[in-house]
Specification:
single chain; about 210 residues; alpha+beta; four-stranded antiparallel β-sheet; globular
Length: about 210
């Protein structure tokens, strides 16, 4: 799809990148207008998944077009393109830790930037030396990337995602509990709705 936008339409890398950027922004805007959020944690229904995968398609295609644009039209080469997108990703990471900018915005920014970074680094590994690459075979380049992925998985700690919804509601009631001696206790049952899930909390009953 990126090659079709860049080459088949005859608008070049810059034109293709612009078209794909407009499509991506349109997809995210319609998603937000329809459902009120573009946060990945809210993807839990067929309609949300449709918007999610369409946005993924445009973002990945835009990333490929960006990689081609920087390495060819801007003549940065594979090394220059890798350094550029690495710096941009570092800026996104620093923004995440040191500012309060929307985490959803930063997620999509990082997601888009990882694609051109991977594209230019992949080209750097297997393109000929005369073109600025290392001239590795596809198997050797794939092995290098696999080792890198496994190393990152082992080095960086993994943890489950924490979902925080912007809205929550509570409802509940009283519960009656009888112990083995016939005494009764009254407690409070609270049902808290957080996103698509309900959580039940019980207070300790007071016996009489």
């Amino acid at each position: 799809m990126a090659d079709f936008a860049d080459r088949s339409l005859g608008i070049g890398y810059a034109g293709g990148t612009l078209v794909l950027f407009v499509l991506l922004i349109s997809s995210i805007s319609i998603w937000y207008w329809s459902l009120g959020s573009v946060e990945v944690g809210t993807v839990s229904s067929p309609k949300t998944e449709m918007f999610y995968w369409v946005t993924i398609m445009f973002s990945q295609t835009l990333g490929t077009a960006l990689g081609d644009w920087t390495s060819n039209t801007l003549e940065l080469g594979y090394k220059g393109g890798g350094i550029l997108f690495g710096i941009l990703l570092a800026i996104v990471a620093a923004t995440y830790y040191w500012t309060h900018i929307s985490r959803t915005l930063l997620f999509w920014a990082a997601f888009i930037l990882t694609r051109p970074l991977g594209a230019v680094l992949g080209d750097f590994l297997d393109k000929p030396l005369d073109d600025g690459g290392l001239a590795l075979s596809r198997y050797e380049a794939s092995a290098v990337l696999v080792v890198f992925i496994v190393a990152c998985t082992l080095i960086f700690p993994q943890r489950a995602a924490i979902y925080s919804a912007p809205r929550e509601s509570q409802k509940g009631g009283l519960i009656l509990n009888l112990d083995q001696k016939g005494a009764y206790g009254v407690g409070i049952c609270k049902i808290k709705k957080v996103g698509p899930h309900d959580s039940l909390t019980l207070s300790e009953p007071s016996y009489h």
